[in-house]
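Quick one:
INPUT:
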């Protein structure tokens, strides 16, 4: 089994960039299937049911890797499928993961930042770094008028990069482009919360997994309106963060008919003299 220490995020980022440059693919949008093709990994797409996203197997007799993945015949979007391929490439390239696979052990992956398993988290980190290299991602954000992004602009960026809005928003927060947080919820229950470093520094640190979406949030108002897909407005920080005041701007967007809602929170600077 893989060790408990884990890989350094900077090392994962550097490896993703190195692979892209070696293949002369360091430009947006990144094409993960081209990397699979060049590595001669055999693809086995299918309309797999349930929560299965993908599985990478090593067949010692043929000295070949085989990648099973849920394709467009399922409810997976193009962005999710591409992220899944990037995730499996993480298992292929990260040395500890690769050693694990070549020992003959395999497991089904469930991608998208929802697993508590360290190995799966590392593969998600690799996929984000591969599909959204930090420098290229920051350059893309800087092309927007304010040099930062609203949630709708992040959706535009995600479409350009051929990734999901969830993946793009998480990457935006993790790269600390501004004081911001992203929350993903399903049917009013929080799945995860990712704050930027600046957001944590301001005291907006924690939204509990499995907790209910706050009653006075814009997200809750969106959930209560079947005719709307988007809501936004200024809120007090205490709506989402217990005992932490201050002004936040909340944007919430339904993700199709899945019951999922992505919530994007940004810190509002106080006006001079306030």
């Amino acid at each position: 089994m893989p060790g408990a220490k884990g890989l350094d995020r900077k090392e994962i980022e550097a490896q993703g960039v190195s692979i892209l440059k070696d293949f002369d693919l360091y430009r947006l949008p990144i094409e993960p299937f081209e990397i699979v093709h060049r590595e001669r990994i055999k693809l086995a797409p299918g309309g797999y049911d349930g929560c299965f996203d993908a599985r990478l197997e090593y067949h010692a007799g043929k000295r070949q890797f085989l990648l099973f993945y849920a394709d467009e015949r399922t409810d997976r979007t193009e962005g999710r499928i591409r992220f899944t391929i990037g995730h499996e490439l993480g298992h292929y390239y990260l040395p500890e993961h690769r050693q694990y696979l070549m020992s003959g052990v395999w497991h089904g992956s469930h991608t998208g930042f929802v697993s508590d398993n360290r190995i799966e988290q590392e593969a998600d980190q690799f996929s984000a770094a591969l599909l959204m290299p930090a420098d290229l991602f920051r350059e893309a954000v800087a092309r927007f008028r304010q040099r930062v992004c609203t949630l709708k602009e992040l959706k535009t960026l995600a479409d350009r990069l051929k990734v999901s809005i969830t993946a793009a928003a998480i990457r935006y927060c993790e790269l600390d482009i501004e004081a911001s947080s992203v929350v993903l919820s399903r049917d009013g229950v929080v799945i995860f919360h990712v704050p930027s470093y600046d957001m944590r520094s301001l005291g907006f640190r924690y939204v509990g997994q499995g907790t209910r979406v706050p009653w006075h949030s814009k997200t809750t108002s969106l959930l209560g309106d079947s005719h709307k897909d988007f809501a936004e407005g200024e809120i007090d920080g205490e709506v989402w963060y217990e005992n932490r005041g201050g002004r936040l701007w909340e944007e919430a967007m339904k993700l199709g008919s899945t019951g999922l809602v992505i919530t994007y929170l940004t810190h509002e600077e106080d006006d001079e003299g306030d």
